[in-house]
Amino acid sequence: MLEENERIVLPDPDGEGEHVFEVMFTFEVDDSEKQYVVVTPVVEDDQEEDEEVEIFAFEYEESAEDPEGYTLHQIESDEEWEMVEEMINTLLEDDETLLVDGEAEDKE
């Protein structure tokens, strides 16, 4: 299971390298039993901490064979993205320790 503050590496969609993200939180939707992970890019030392933070969300599926393994899936439908975005906004409002503006900026 992905844990808060865990770092994950995702390949660039164009195949030109990879990106490091930090897990902000995970949640499960009871109706669908789908699990989601919300991540943010790791801030480089030369970036300003006051800069706006991008937030990305993915559906994730844990591996049955490997307890540490998982697969990330893009959120495809607008309906699913709206539900995830609503959950992100609710969780951000409830947790004052998360250093973001409270809005999900990008949908991947």
Walk me through this protein's architecture:
Helices cover 16% and strands 33% of the residues. By secondary structure, the chain is of the alpha+beta class. It has a 5-stranded antiparallel β-sheet, with helices on one face. It is globular and about 40 Å long. InterPro entries: UPF0473. It comes from Geomicrobium sediminis. Belongs to the UPF0473 family. This is UPF0473 protein JOD17_002990.
The main β sheet shows up as:
5 strands, antiparallel
Number of helices: 1
Proportion of residues in β-strands = 25-35%
Structural class: alpha+beta
Q: How far is the first residue's CA from the last residue's CA?
A: 21 Å
Report low-confidence residues grouped into runs of 5 or more.
99-108
Secondary-structure element pattern, one letter each: EEEEEH
Number of strands: 5
**CA-based gyration radius:** 14 Å
| Proportion of helical residues | 10-25%
Gross geometry: globular
Structurally, the number of domains stands at 1
Q: Name the strands of the widest sheet in spatial order.
A: 1-2-3-4-5
The average pLDDT score comes to 79
Task: Give me the secondary-structure topology.
Layout: E1 7-11, E2 18-29, E3 34-41, E4 56-62, E5 70-73, H1 78-94
Antiparallel strand pairs: 1-2, 2-3, 3-4, 4-5
Descriptive tags:
108 residues; 16% helix; disordered C terminus; UPF0473; five-stranded antiparallel beta sheet; UPF0473 protein JOD17_002990; alpha+beta
In short:
The chain has one domain.
